[in-house]
Amino acid sequence: MSKFLYFCINLLMIGVGVLLVRRVFVIFGALGSCGYLGYLASNVFQDSVLFPVMLTAIGLGIIYLGVLWQRHEKAISQTVRARMPMALQELLESKDR
Q: The whole model's pTM is what?
């Protein structure tokens, strides 16, 4: 369960990195996520036939979400930033300039 929690923290890092436009969070979150998926592939689902198929489907889904994000990045960022506390909005605005 602790490794799954580690995976969730890495996914959270990716999400925060994307919203705050911090590539470092995205890179280290992706590396941690890949490490967890490697652990699953080598130890947990070692003899499974469907696990590589599921990894392929997840990868294609991530690519699709990336394309959607790229197309609608400005609208999504504005919507999310509008829901953030005012202090954080001001901090992000000052960093964007």
A: 0.69
